[in-house]
Amino acid sequence: MFAKRLFLAGAFAAGAALATSAQAHAKLQSSDPAAGSIVATAPRQIRLKFNEAVEPAFSKIILSDDKNADIKLPHVEVDKADPSVMTATLPALGHGTFRVQWTAMTHDSHKTKGDFTFQVK
């Protein structure tokens, strides 16, 4: 009887863990430039690393300046070799504060959003 209860408890715990991981959302693990950073020279790209793969068709990066005007990004893509990485090629940026807004959708259709700023001296 004890073995049966132990087995059922283990099965329940395993099922709960699987259900939790199946409903996970993409979380931003790191960015380059880093959130809140002050850089001496303007970056040539934005690189976002998530904790899981994101869907290219439904994931995006938007960049705006300190006047809240959107800056056209020539190329945004999810890395084919590592689909947990999304990059955006940047035009020449001047000095100022820039806001990065991102949207990431995972393979199980969960969408997350976030934003951060960085500054170019």
Q: Concise description?
A:
It is found in: Periplasm. This protein has one helix at residues 2-22, and strands at residues 28-32, 38-39, 45-50, 60-64, 70-71, 75-78, 85-89, 96-105, 111-120.
Task: Considering the chains and any ligands shown, give keywords for the structure.
single chain, 121 residues, alpha+beta, Immunoglobulin-like, 4-stranded antiparallel sheet, 1 helix
Describe the secondary structure blueprint for this structure.
Elements: H1 2-22, E1 28-32, E2 38-39, E3 45-50, E4 60-64, E5 70-71, E6 75-78, E7 85-89, E8 96-105, E9 111-120
Parallel strand pairs: 2-9
Antiparallel strand pairs: 1-3, 3-7, 4-5, 4-8, 6-7, 8-9
Explain what the structure shows.
- It is a single chain.
- This protein has 121 residues and is α+β, with helices and mostly antiparallel strands.
- The chain is 17% helix and 40% strand.
- The strands form two sheets. It has a five-stranded mixed sheet, with no helix packed on it.
- The protein is elongated.
- It starts with a helix and ends with a strand.
- The N terminus is likely disordered.
Structural class label? alpha+beta
In helices, the fraction of residues equals 10-25%
Mean pLDDT: 86
Number of strands: 9
Number of helices: 1
Q: What would CATH call the class?
A: Mainly Beta
CATH architecture annotation:
Sandwich
Beta content? 35-45%
CATH topology name: Immunoglobulin-like
What kind of sheet is the major sheet?
Answer: 5 strands, mixed
Provide the domain count.
1
* Termini Cα gap: 69 Å
What is the topology, as strand order, of the major beta sheet? 2-9-8-4-5
Uncertain stretches of 5 or more adjacent residues: 2-22
Radius of gyration based on Cα positions: 19 Å
Order of helices and strands: HEEEEEEEEE
Coarse shape: elongated
